[in-house]
């Protein structure tokens, strides 16, 4: 009698394993999610903005003292009639609003969407690496490492926008990787014999479903934060080069130029045009209430901004949006008028990001050049000076206890990942392994652009969008160390031991830092044991 057994490459095993890792991540992120019972860091903006979107359809200004009232259970009478000058799009805030709709306007309600999305991000990571390597074990390892990173953990327990940005960006890249496999399979079926002349198959490759889904995801990512435009541009070029490489393998001459026409234009439509449509749809609430913005925010402090040229102050921009003084249109003309107002609003927001913040500073601001090395974490909550014998503090006399939530990545992942990325560059350029190129381009497009803005306050937790590519670099290096053969060899044994040791060290590292990520009670000495570098204070 023949017996069947589950294989590691079985699709069911792959999905169940990935779901198990994601469920583990969800449990970690839901644990005491409502603690501390306060607005942590920028939750004070996004949680209230989300509630306003949910109940008014657009973001309104709120009354002074709203935070204290909300924490006491009051939500009525706190929002005023005037629209608020929001400086980020609404997708992430709508997702926060879903949690508030389901569970109420309290810390658990405004954080639960981030916890779910952060866990789904782990699932996508598992499946992406499984697709790229063909290994369920490596896929689950990637998801596990992502779930064990402190930066990803804490952002999955906060009502900030960055976890949603990271999720949609990762989904978009996963779609583009799937498109690479789909395109090559499709091309092989359409051209089973080498192409002797011409362009190769065209019509059968105009419709690319995975690129379409990728465009939707990029639209949602940009609709969360504009910084998703950088990976959209970088991976859009990579999609073209992947297509050209496939055509070269099929025998097409001058494939780069020919692919720019027959593949580049359809890819632009799938990614950029579709992404733009999705992005504009995310502003529906704003567009419906465009008259409110034209009345109250068409001449904001950001519309005209001054800068110095020598000793002369130079003003740029218009005093007021042209649409604010035009008669109200109707029908399709009203849509056009509202879109024009939205364009002027975008100019104001851009001025805010690129000019208004230049002279600002912040205690937790950090230079992006050091983000991959964990140069400066962000403290989002703290309760210090807890005396011995009170609130569970068992510190010795003369000392005290404290609780903290610190946005700090897991050191083994980030420091090991920095080395893995250097290795990825070498393998991508030397061995021409496209998978390492995903790690390199993903890291470069989500991290390096911030170097252009290091004269304004920016924070290390923005690097959570880069994190999946850091993890990808680590896991691909593991896979290369272990090798493709399953036959026991000294090299394979050494690779398994090295990879396994890294995972075990990361688990230990994660457990050690757990209290300073989750508001755990520590004596002052225990806290100092976890603050390894002076710049972490």
What oligomeric assembly is this protein in?
single chain
What is the terminal-to-terminal distance?
Answer: 65 Å
Give the CA-based shape.
globular
Q: What structural class do helix, strand and pairing data support?
A: mainly alpha
Order of helices and strands: HHEHEHHHHHHHHHHHEEHEEHHHHEH
Q: How many helices? A: 20
What is the arithmetic mean of pLDDT?
92
Strand content: 5-15%
Number of beta strands: 7
- The poorly predicted ranges are none
Counted up, domains total 3
Percent of residues in helices: 55-70%
Enumerate the strands of the largest sheet in spatial order, edge to edge or round the barrel: 5-6-7
Largest β-sheet summary: 3 strands, antiparallel
The Cα radius of gyration reads 25 Å
Explain this structure.
The protein has 537 residues and is mainly α. The protein folds into 3 domains: 11-140, no CATH class; 285-356, no CATH class; 364-537, no CATH class. The chain is 58% helix and 7% strand. It is built from 20 helices and 7 strands. The chain has helices at 11-30, 43-56, 66-71, 91-103, 107-133, 136-147, 150-155, 162-190, 209-222, 229-249, 255-262, 264-282, 284-288, 290-296, 332-356, 411-430, 434-447, 467-482, 490-517, 524-530, and strands at residues 60-62, 79-83, 305-309, 312-316, 378-386, 401-407, 521-523. The strands form 3 sheets. A 3-stranded antiparallel β-sheet has the order 5-6-7. Helix 8 (162-190) runs antiparallel to helix 9 and helix 16 packs across helix 18. The protein is globular and about 75 Å long. It starts with 10 loop residues before the first helix and ends in a 7-residue tail after the last helix. 44% of the residues are buried. The model has no long low-confidence stretch (mean pLDDT 92).
């Amino acid at each position: 009698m023949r017996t069947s057994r589950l294989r590691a490459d079985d699709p069911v095993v792959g999905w169940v394993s990935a779901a198990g890792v994601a469920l583990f991540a969800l449990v970690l992120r839901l644990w005491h999610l409502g603690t501390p019972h306060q607005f942590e860091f920028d939750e004070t903006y996004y949680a209230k903005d989300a509630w306003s979107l949910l109940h008014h359809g657009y973001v309104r200004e709120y009354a002074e003292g709203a935070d204290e009232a909300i924490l006491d259970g009051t939500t009525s009478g706190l929002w005023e009639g005037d629209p608020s000058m929001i400086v980020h799009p609404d997708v992430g805030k709508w997702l926060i609003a879903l949690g508030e709709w389901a569970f109420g306007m309290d810390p658990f309600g405004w954080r639960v969407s981030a916890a779910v999305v952060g866990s789904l991000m782990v699932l996508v990571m598992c499946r992406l690496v499984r697709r790229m390597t063909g290994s369920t074990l490596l896929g689950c390892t990637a998801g596990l490492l992502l779930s064990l990173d402190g930066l990803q953990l804490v952002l999955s327990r906060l009502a900030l926008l960055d976890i949603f940005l990271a999720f949609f960006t990762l989904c978009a890249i996963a779609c583009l990787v799937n498109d690479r496999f789909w395109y090559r399979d499709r091309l092989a079926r359409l051209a089973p014999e080498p192409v002797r002349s011409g362009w190769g198959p065209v019509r059968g490759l105009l419709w690319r479903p995975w690129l379409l889904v990728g465009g939707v995801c990029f639209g949602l990512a940009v609709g969360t934060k504009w910084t998703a435009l950088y990976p959209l541009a970088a991976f859009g070029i990579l999609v073209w080069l992947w297509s050209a490489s496939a055509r070269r393998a099929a025998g097409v001459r001058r494939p780069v130029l020919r692919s720019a026409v027959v593949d580049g234009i359809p890819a632009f439509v799938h990614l950029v045009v579709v992404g733009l449509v999705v992005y504009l749809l995310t502003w529906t609430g704003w567009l419906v209430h465009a008259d409110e913005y034209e009345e109250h925010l068409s001449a904001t402090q950001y519309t005209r901004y001054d800068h110095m040229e020598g000793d002369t102050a130079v003003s740029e921009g218009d005093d007021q949006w042209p649409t604010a003084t035009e008669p109200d249109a109707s029908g399709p003309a009203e849509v056009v008028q509202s879109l024009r107002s939205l364009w002027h609003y975008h100019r104001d927001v851009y001025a805010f990001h690129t000019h208004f913040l230049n002279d600002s500073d912040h205690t937790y601001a950090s230079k992006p050049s050091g983000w991959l090395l964990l140069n400066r974490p962000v403290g989002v909550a703290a309760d210090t000076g807890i005396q011995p014998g009170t609130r569970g503090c068992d510190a010795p006399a003369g000392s005290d206890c404290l609780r903290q939530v610190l946005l700090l990545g897991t050191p083994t992942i980030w420091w090991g990942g920095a080395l893995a990325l250097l290795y990825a560059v070498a393998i991508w350029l030397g061995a021409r392994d496209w998978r390492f190129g995903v790690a390199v381009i993903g890291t470069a497009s989500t991290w390096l652009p911030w170097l252009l803005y290091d004269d304004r306050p920016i924070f290390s937790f923005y690097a959570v969008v880069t994190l999946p590519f850091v993890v990808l670099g680590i896991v691909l290096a593991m896979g290369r160390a272990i090798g493709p053969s399953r036959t026991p060899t000294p090299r394979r044994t050494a690779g398994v031991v090295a990879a396994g040791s890294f995972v075990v060290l990361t688990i230990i590292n994660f457990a050690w830092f757990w209290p300073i990520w989750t508001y755990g009670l520590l004596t002052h000495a225990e806290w100092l044991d976890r603050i390894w570098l002076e710049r972490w204070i």
